[in-house]
Amino acid sequence: MSNNPEKLQPRLAKLNEALESGALDQARRMLNRGLAPVDVAHLLESTPPKEREILWGLLDPELHGDVLQYLGDDVQLEFLNRMDAEQLLTATEGLDVDDLADLLQQLPNTVIQEVLQSMEAQERQRVEAVLSYPEDTAGGLMNPDAITIRPDITLDVVLRYLRRHERLPDATDTLLVVTRRDELIGILSINRLLVSDVSVLVREVMQTDFHAIQATASDSDVATLFQKHDLISAPVVGIDGKLLGRITIDDVVDVIREDAEHQVMSMAGLDEDEDTFAPALRTSRRRAVWLGINLIAATIVSIAIGFFEDTIQQIAALAVLMPIVSSMGGIAGSQTLTVLIRGIALGHVSGANVRWLLIRELLVGMTNGLIWAVVVGAMSVFRFDDIRLGEIIAMAMVINLTVATLAGTLIPVMLKKFKIDPALSGGVLLTTITDVVGFVAFLGLATAFYL
Amino acid sequence: MSNNPEKLQPRLAKLNEALESGALDQARRMLNRGLAPVDVAHLLESTPPKEREILWGLLDPELHGDVLQYLGDDVQLEFLNRMDAEQLLTATEGLDVDDLADLLQQLPNTVIQEVLQSMEAQERQRVEAVLSYPEDTAGGLMNPDAITIRPDITLDVVLRYLRRHERLPDATDTLLVVTRRDELIGILSINRLLVSDVSVLVREVMQTDFHAIQATASDSDVATLFQKHDLISAPVVGIDGKLLGRITIDDVVDVIREDAEHQVMSMAGLDEDEDTFAPALRTSRRRAVWLGINLIAATIVSIAIGFFEDTIQQIAALAVLMPIVSSMGGIAGSQTLTVLIRGIALGHVSGANVRWLLIRELLVGMTNGLIWAVVVGAMSVFRFDDIRLGEIIAMAMVINLTVATLAGTLIPVMLKKFKIDPALSGGVLLTTITDVVGFVAFLGLATAFYL
């Protein structure tokens, strides 16, 4: 029978029951023996602070490292901060070098040094090699666990060499062929090894047109490379062409997921590593900054309206209708902004085709501006029995939707040029523009034609 | 030397040059021999319609299928639509069954039937098996290319059997152990095969606690499983436990990326498969729908303001300040909404902890409401020299930010319950609420205290 170990929900329910009824011994047993570390991590991330505290306390210290590596940065740091160097060392024993480096990168330098000091020389060197590269580079992602072979041996020798291992590193789909001086000269896929005649030399069957990643390459570029060529692992080399380690698809999947989360979260001024169950005070403080930035934007908009206070005093209907103009502009602009941000991220948008996009968006803005101008204009005439009011709001709609789509195109392109994250600041900039233009166009036209 | 084949940009620039100078023969050569199919697909997706047309015309027909499989649905359909069954058959020769099924799924049933009719019986059966499952299920993702072995042979026999293949399917990290009746009873990882004694039986070293995916499982569940357990491939079985095929990590990576894009795009009412360079008319039509939905929301807001037309007529300063209250509420609400939508997607949020989140958000909303109420109140007093106005806007801020965070928590939870995509409709719902509450609170309080 096929044995599917994915019966998580009922076990979590039982664990919760045990916790609530105070059967802590039972809960401890279920936590430490009934759940995989990745499931424990998921459980911790799904739990409010107090219960999280209790669960962590019930967890066997030797499982701490295994669980820690699966936690998001925010929750991870919460637990790391209260461990001393010795506890860290116990917890992280047996972790892969790249996972260990990920954890250490979160800690202050003095603690990192302390942990490194207490490691064996060889292990320390391997961890230091990874730590010497920023977290978001190929060097920071790599694991120095590659199996290397020489070009002048037969496949038979390779097979016997492999058989001397107790196990091969995870995601070993290729063996890396290096010279005596550790320069990477080819890769031998396990698939090729399994179907080739065992008497041929590695040199004869190895691939020489492989993807070697520079240690300084950005993690996004690594992700693109893996996706484009359906890679499972790829070697990392230094500028001297010497092999440093390899990157595996599981770490690349994390990069892809985090990049995607970053976009969604930063559109609301949030961090992608944020703990879902962060306490109220910390949450308030973090969110306040973004609210402050938006207050500046809202104040600018309010000042723009202020110029037309007299007009509003005379025709209050303008105040009733004006949010329609600004909100429709905001929606039209954010549609364009979203398409452009994605296009830039996918590498579709470049200097050569921005002009085409600008013209397309101009046409789209004018078309939808006209369509909805007619609808909103008619609605306004019907509601306030005033044809001029309908004409004015219709004109304002066309102006604002056209400006909105143009701003939606230009803002991300310009932010990109200044190396500012368009997902973070594009939205605020855009709605400030569409609000100001919407209100000024509508109230300005009203002032000109009514008064 | 390590041979890195990633020199794409200069080749694309040269190709563009050739196209612009009208050297079509040269461009044709570069397109068909100088670029990998995945790069041609990327080029097509980065090109406005007219140039795209020319490029497609220059592409060798036998490369069409290879290129098509890398295109987004929108662009893919554009080219598929104008091919007849015979052209489709030529284009798709040699594609993997899952990629072929992906392409066919886009076409009308009559065309699918025509293509299937002209296939060999065995290939047809394999494609039909995949087509019988919806695109977004494990069955729709799977490839029937698994290598299967029997439990009662020695590893030596397995190795000799593999050596009879010319190549193994991509991402073959495990061999699937089946009974005579094709029931899946275990998996043998290639790694295990390589390090084990060749004289032992498959049955002795195979894993029996493996992840077998039901063909009807959703693609998101498949993605979660792969991420949690760092899988490279996993077998797919029917309800009878019989092996149907396997899913590989490259297809799962596509699912993860598309899920992430879906969230970002649907927040602006867009489709994740949308062609960045869709023509103006098609783009206008698609976006108009979303603008229409938002117009309904804006009209509701406008009607709410309408109740206070008289108040505004008397104190126009209210119209100047009111967008601040609504916009700050919108921001606070969308921060909560974003955290909740992510929490639900990650499986962190469940019935058990929604209450904790609701209280946390209530505290956050009140805290930030109070902080910014003081700031906005002071600003208003300073600007209009009217203490009562400052008090009123401060009160409205606290009310709106508190309601906003509560709505941001409850909306996605309720939408989820009704199986409505919160990324699509959450934003409109939320801003309608924060706008209405913001305006009504502010203008209502002003009416009560001033008049």
UniProtKB/TrEMBL annotation, chains A, B:
The chain crosses the membrane at residues 288-308, 314-341, 362-380, 392-415, 427-450. It is a multi-pass membrane protein. GO terms for cellular component: plasma membrane. It is found in: Cell membrane; Membrane. The keyword Transmembrane applies. Keywords: CBS domain, Cell membrane, Magnesium, Membrane, Metal-binding, Transmembrane, Transmembrane helix, Transport. One of its GO terms (molecular function) is magnesium ion transmembrane transporter activity. InterPro entries: CBS_dom, CBS_dom_sf, Mg_transptr_MgtE_intracell_dom, MgtE_N_sf, MgtE_transporter, SLC41_membr_dom, SLC41_membr_dom_sf. Residues 142-205, 206-264 form the CBS domain. Its main location: membrane. It comes from the Bacteria. Belongs to the SLC41A transporter family. Homodimer. Acts as a magnesium transporter. NCBIfam families: mgtE (TIGR00400). This is Magnesium transporter MgtE. It comes from Salinicola corii.
